[in-house]
């Protein structure tokens, strides 16, 4: 590789790092205390074969009404940072899982008054397997009983579900029996 080609490769990697940093600041439109990267919605930032920046996002569920707003917010952030050309690609496979929510985002959700998902969907092996070039682990959605979520306000595990759906379809409405406060619970998927 020539020194010019090496310089171009380093500059390209630097541009990708900058794009990741810019997109790190894009908040989720429904839960503005966490970024789309922290929620695992932002899956990849890469160079396409034509040299354009390609941003890959995965919805929290296939009917998520916030995806068009998320794509628009990504475009606004990239335009403001001077990234062009670029495109935003939505992919549905592998399906998003709450396992992709970072520990920092879980803490932010709790501080915001939303109980983060409990349990593990068992899909965390996806990223390690993909990096190793091995077969992806299949996610199975089967009914299972999970422990009641802890109240994000007082920490009590004496909680009850009031409704399967809360402020959005990906959350359920719960109430703490001890402090009597209602709260959203981010359902595990």
Number-wise, the strands total 7
Head-to-tail CA distance between termini: 45 Å
Q: What are the secondary-structure elements, in order, as H or E?
A: HEEHEHEHEEE
Instruction: Return the CATH class of the largest domain.
Output: Alpha Beta
Instruction: List the domain count as a whole number.
Output: 2
CATH architecture of the largest domain: 2-Layer Sandwich
The residue ranges in which pLDDT falls below 50 over 5 or more consecutive positions are 124-134
Helix fraction by DSSP (H/I, runs of at least 4) = 25-40%
**Number of discrete helical segments:** 4
Sketch the major β-sheet: 4 strands, mixed
Looking at how many chains there are and whether they match, the oligomeric state comes to single chain
* Secondary-structure-derived class: alpha/beta
Radius of gyration: 19 Å
């Amino acid at each position: 590789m020539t020194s010019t080609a090496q310089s171009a490769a380093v500059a390209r990697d630097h541009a990708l790092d900058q794009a990741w940093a810019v997109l790190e600041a894009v908040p989720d439109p429904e839960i503005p205390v966490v970024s789309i990267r922290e929620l695992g919605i932002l899956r990849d930032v890469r160079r396409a074969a034509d040299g354009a920046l390609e941003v890959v996002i995965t919805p929290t569920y296939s009917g998520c009404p916030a995806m068009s707003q998320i794509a628009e917010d990504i475009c606004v952030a990239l335009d403001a940072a001077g990234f062009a050309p670029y495109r935003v690609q939505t992919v549905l496979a592998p399906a998003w899982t709450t396992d992709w929510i970072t520990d920092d985002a879980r803490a932010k959700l709790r501080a915001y008054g939303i109980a983060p998902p409990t349990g593990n969907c068992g899909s965390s092996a996806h990223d390690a397997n993909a990096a190793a070039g091995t077969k992806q682990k299949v996610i199975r959605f089967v009914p299972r009983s999970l422990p009641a979520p802890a109240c994000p306000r007082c920490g009590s595990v004496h909680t009850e579900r009031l409704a399967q759906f809360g402020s959005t379809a990906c959350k359920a409405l719960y109430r703490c029996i001890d402090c009597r406060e209602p709260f959203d619970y981010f359902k595990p998927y």
